[in-house]
Each structure stands twice: as structure tokens, then as C-alpha cells.
Write a sequence for this structure.
């Protein structure tokens, strides 16, 4: 089997992982099949795609990325493969020379070497060799803003630790002799150090550093040490600033430089960082080999390496390591971040730290440790078994609504590569909307007051969506209403930018809007404006034990209504865009069923808001 780059990353994440794998020693020097390696690669790339597609919502609600397993690997990998193709094109432009690249892993350049009886193996996405250097390029389907967000802000303006030159992004220290004239040195170093956090901002750099260890291992084993100084290491990622100009060839997008001269791929030079990483990697290699030859599956503390709630969450976290955590009312259900402090001054900023010390149930945490009124409220609701309702705040929020109320929900496809003119990478491109119009409080019919627009094909129908919206919604009367309305606002604003004919009306709709969550959970800015002090403005308007710390539609719907998604074919947003994505694969009868399933799902999303709002009215 050998130790691949992916297995190295997993086996070193915690002392227990290898023991749980129950590896046989003979696999440590054996070959790995192409199918096995390809599966590892695809699963790794899918986690990268998922993490970029599914972010925390703008209002801070946590999204459990482990619940995105229904995103089809087969449906999405074609986009990752195309990212590799585009990366190879840009590499050839930037570096010249000879470029080796292949979609199928078995045709890619590979490196391997043996160390203490263990074989290490990696394949390289792109190898470029020119007169000066051997260039190793690892392709990731994430975006460049992950790196360009690293840097201090001055008066709200970000000063990144990277700078662009001749098609490559470098750390500023490599381009400027007087670095202090470009950036605050202390803040530069602090942000640079984030690249060494393998479970956070540095995860892709760590991946590349492991690859470097294996490549240099082969160089040394095969008497090619002279190549070490000639080899440079890069990450190629999607350019978050790129805007597609709408050029097609044979009905497929042609990703030329955009109108500002930006390529769709950005290349980051991490040669220096991966060199500094090698001492860390070597230490982890020593630990790994100790785990391999002395496996131990005894429980260990739950820490950041578990990657709880992320797309890279350890596969053993749910079935094995976290089985001591209660399924309901655990400390993990404290809403948002925690800032607890015990009587000795010890701080708890991570919920898993509480678990490690035996505080498993939400009621296990002493009240005096907690400084958040909402966290104390959660405890009180669980302890006394009541439903918290701040009638005055809910009534005040409902009184802000103007009718007709337009309950709006978009279904979007955040494609890694832009498909239509004016789009960027991972842009939330709408393919469906549902609108329920509530004419007066409580006056809305499930069928007669509902309007759904759903793309029939994969053609660009965004303008039709914009046109239909301004036909149905009067921007001068009533207001748009949504759960987490910042999402709908962003989609509306993007449609406005792309279709000037409808811009004024679409922007008015986006501006004149209200969030259902502001009524249920609350909103500090809204309630301070209504006369509440900071503490009361921040407090939950409503809390029920069944919410389990979350105000997502999945949690609020059964608390307020009898509605359920269980009887629907399409049950969530991920299934919705995958169903849309798979249009071309359906037979005629399958297409009709799936099309109606998408209509039913989106329609239920907006009706759910009608029902929840009605339930809130009855509470006050």
C-alpha cells in the first residue's frame, strides 16, 4: 500500500488514528493500486471543493460541513479536472519549458522513497522543467483569497503578505529589500506564521511540504541531490478576482485573461515556506513511524486535529472518538463561540476542551464560568424545561414588516469555474427561485400565491430570472423576506450588476428586505435601533430546547410547524443543485420527476417561512 501523501496527513493527525486503522506491517512497503490512490486524491479534492462551496453563513450560524456528503463526487470531479487543465495552461504561459500534466493520476509524474522500512509515495499534479528550475505545482480547487486575506488591515484596507510579479504571487519578503516600508513587520510575521497551522490557513501549504519531503527523499535515494536546490514548489488555485468574459468555444467556456488581464489561475510560490516546514515534517515522520510500528488505539484528547464539523473531519470522530458526547444537550450545543473562565482563571475557548475535562452535558458547566446571557439562557431552558419567548421583542420586530411580504428563496449552483458572463469562481449562480406573496398578515395561499421559476436546461437563464423577479415584486411596496437574507441580497445585487435593465428595481428589492432570523433569534443592530441596550439587544428572542443551539431552518421548522422535508425527493440545498447539475443524465421520465422535485423543494422553503412567521405572530 505504501504511505501516500494523503495517508501521511491522516496518520499524523493524532496518536490514535493508525491504531484504529489496524494496519498490517507488510502494507508499509507494498505497492498501492491506481484505483486506491485515485480514490484518496478524489476524496481529498472533494473536501477542498466542499469547504470552498459551503461557508459559514454571514450571520455567524455554524454550518456542519460533514453534512455535505450528499454532494456527488462524480458530478463535481469534472470541474476539479478542468481546474487542473486550466492550471496547466497558465503554468505553460508563466514558466515556459516542458510541462508534464495528466488528468489521470496513473499518468502523472510520481516520486517515492524508502525510510526505515516504510515506503512513501506521491503523484504530482504538474511538473514543469525549464532552463532554470524544476517546478512542482500542486493544484487546489480553492480560491486565492484564502491567501490574500492574510495580512493586516489599515483603516479597513487589507495589506496582504503576498505580492504579484510576472504571473506569480510571492511573499513580500522575497520581492522587497526594505520590507518594513511595505507592511508592519510584526503583523506580517504573525500572518506569515499562520501558514504553518496545518489544520487552518496552512493546510494546503502543509500538503505541499509533505510532497516536498517525498520528492527530496527520492532525490537523495537516487543520487540526484543536485536537483534539490533547483526544485521550486508552488500552489495553483483559482483566482478569486477573475471575472469570466463570456467567451465560448464548442459551447464550452474559454477562460482567457479577463478584461483586467487576470488569469483564472493564480500561482503562489511556497518554496521558502515548505523548506522551513521540513524540520516539522521530519519530526512528524518520526512520530508516524512510531505509530506504525507501535500502534495504539487508546483514547486521546479531542483537539483541533479532529477537524470537527469540517469537510476534513476525521472519519473516526463520530463513530468512535466522540461517542461519550451526549446526542442531545451536549456542551457542543452552546450557540456560537464560547468564552468561559473557571474560578482559577483557566479559559475555555474550545468546546472540545470542556469534553476533555469531563464536562459533557450543557448543564455540567458551572453557571459562574459563563459570561454570555444567551449561554446562560440555553442552560436555563434545558434545566427548567420551558420555552423562552421575549414577546415584546418579537412583536416589535414583526411590526417592522411591510406588506405585501415577498417570501423569497433562491437555489444556486456555486460552480468552481464560472459558467456565464460576469461570473466569478464559486459564484452563487441562481437556477431557481420560489416566491410566496403574503398580501396581509396571515393572508397567503400555498398554491395560488406561489411563483416558481426553474431553469429547464443548463443554458444561462439568469436574465429571465431577473426579469421575472421585477415583474412579481413591486420594489416600492412591501418588502422582501428571507431566512438569512444576506444570501438573497447578494444574489439580487449580482443579478443587478449583470443586467443593467433591471438594476434599479433589483437593488431596491435587496435594500428593502427583512430577515426571519431577526425575529426568531434577534439582531443587535436592529434592536439597539429600537431602543434596547447592548445586552438586551444581543439576547435571543426565542429559544426552545429542540433547537439544540442552532437557528437553521432544519431546526426551527419542526419547532414552529408540522412541516417536514422527509417526504420530499429533494431534501436540502446540496441535493437541489446536484439534481440540477445532473439534468443531462436523466431520461425523459426521470427529468419530469426531478424537475417537479426541485419545484416542490424550493416551494416548501418559502412556505416554511410563511408558516414560521404565522406561528411567531400567534406567540405574541
Amino acid at each position: 500500500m505504501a504511505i501516500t501523501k494523503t495517508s501521511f496527513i491522516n496518520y499524523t493527525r493524532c496518536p490514535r488514528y493508525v491504531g484504529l486503522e489496524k494496519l498490517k506491517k507488510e502494507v508499509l512497503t507494498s505497492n498501492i493500486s491506481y484505483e486506491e490512490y485515485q480514490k484518496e486524491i478524489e476524496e481529498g479534492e472533494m473536501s477542498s471543493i466542499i469547504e470552498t462551496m459551503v461557508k459559514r453563513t454571514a450571520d455567524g450560524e455554524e454550518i456542519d460541513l460533514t453534512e455535505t456528503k450528499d454532494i456527488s463526487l462524480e458530478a463535481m470531479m469534472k470541474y476539479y479536472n478542468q481546474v487542473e487543465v486550466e492550471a496547466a495552461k497558465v503554468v505553460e504561459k508563466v514558466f515556459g519549458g516542458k510541462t508534464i500534466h495528466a488528468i489521470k493520476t496513473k499518468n502523472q509524474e510520481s516520486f517515492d522513497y524508502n525510510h526505515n522500512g516504510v515506503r512513501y509515495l506521491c503523484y504530482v499534479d504538474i511538473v514543469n522543467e525549464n532552463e532554470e528550475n524544476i517546478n512542482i505545482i500542486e493544484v487546489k480547487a480553492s480560491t486565492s483569497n484564502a491567501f490574500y486575506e492574510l495580512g493586516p488591515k489599515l483603516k479597513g484596507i487589507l495589506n496582504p503578505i503576498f505580492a504579484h510579479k510576472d504571473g506569480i504571487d510571492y511573499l513580500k519578503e522575497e520581492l522587497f529589500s526594505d520590507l518594513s516600508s511595505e507592511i508592519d513587520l510584526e503583523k506580517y510575521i504573525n500572518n506569515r506564521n499562520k501558514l504553518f497551522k496545518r489544520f487552518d490557513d496552512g493546510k494546503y501549504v502543509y500538503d505541499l511540504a509533505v510532497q516536498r519531503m517525498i520528492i527530496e527523499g527520492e532525490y537523495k535515494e537516487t543520487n540526484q541531490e543536485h536537483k534539490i536546490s533547483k526544485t521550486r514548489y508552488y500552489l495553483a488555485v483559482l483566482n478569486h478576482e477573475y471575472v469570466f468574459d463570456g467567451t465560448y468555444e464548442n459551447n464550452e467556456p474559454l477562460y482567457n485573461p479577463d478584461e483586467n488581464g487576470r488569469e483564472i489561475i493564480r500561482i503562489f510560490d511556497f518554496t521558502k515556506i515548505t523548506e522551513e516546514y521540513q524540520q516539522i515534517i521530519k519530526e512528524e515522520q518520526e512520530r508516524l513511524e512510531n505509530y506504525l510500528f507501535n500502534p495504539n488505539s487508546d483514547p486521546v484528547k479531542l483537539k483541533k486535529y479532529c477537524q470537527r464539523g469540517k469537510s476534513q473531519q476525521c472519519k473516526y470522530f463520530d463513530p468512535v472518538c466522540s461517542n461519550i458526547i451526549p446526542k442531545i444537550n451536549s456542551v457542543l450545543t452552546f450557540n456560537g463561540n464560547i468564552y468561559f473562565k473557571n474560578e482559577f482563571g483557566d479559559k475555555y475557548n474550545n468546546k472540545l476542551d470542556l469534553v476533555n475535562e469531563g464536562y459533557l452535558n450543557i448543564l455540567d458547566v458551572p453557571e459562574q464560568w459563563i459570561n454570555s446571557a444567551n449561554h446562560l439562557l440555553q442552560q436555563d431552558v434545558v434545566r427548567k424545561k420551558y420555552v423562552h419567548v421575549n414577546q415584546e421583542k418579537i412583536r416589535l420586530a414583526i411590526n417592522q414588516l411591510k406588506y405585501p411580504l415577498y417570501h423569497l428563496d433562491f437555489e444556486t449552483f456555486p460552480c468552481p469555474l464560472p459558467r456565464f458572463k460576469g461570473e466569478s469562481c464559486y459564484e452563487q449562480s441562481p437556477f431557481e427561485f420560489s416566491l410566496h406573496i403574503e398580501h396581509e398578515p396571515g393572508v397567503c395561499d400555498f398554491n395560488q400565491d406561489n411563483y416558481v421559476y426553474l431553469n429547464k436546461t443548463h443554458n444561462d437563464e439568469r436574465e429571465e430570472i431577473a426579469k421575472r423577479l421585477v415583474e412579481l415584486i413591486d420594489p416600492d411596496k412591501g418588502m422582501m423576506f428571507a431566512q438569512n437574507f444576506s444570501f438573497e441580497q447578494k444574489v439580487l445585487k449580482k443579478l443587478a450588476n449583470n443586467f443593467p435593465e433591471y438594476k434599479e428595481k433589483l437593488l431596491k428589492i435587496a435594500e428593502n428586505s427583512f430577515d426571519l432570523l431577526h425575529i426568531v433569534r434577534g439582531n443587535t443592530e436592529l434592536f439597539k435601533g429600537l431602543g434596547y441596550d447592548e445586552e438586551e439587544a444581543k439576547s435571543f428572542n426565542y429559544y426552545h430546547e429542540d433547537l439544540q443551539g442552532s437557528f437553521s431552518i432544519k431546526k426551527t421548522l419542526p419547532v414552529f410547524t408540522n412541516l417536514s422535508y422527509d417526504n420530499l425527493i429533494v431534501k436540502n440545498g446540496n441535493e437541489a443543485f446536484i439534481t440540477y447539475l445532473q439534468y443531462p443524465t436523466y431520461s425523459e421520465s426521470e427529468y419530469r420527476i426531478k424537475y417537479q422535485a426541485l419545484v416542490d423543494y424550493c416551494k416548501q422553503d418559502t412556505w416554511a417561512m410563511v408558516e414560521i412567521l404565522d406561528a411567531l405572530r400567534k406567540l405574541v
Q: What stands out?
A: Residues 143 and 238 are 5 Å apart (CA to CA). The first strand starts at residue 3 and ends at 4. The chain is about 40% helix and 15% strand.
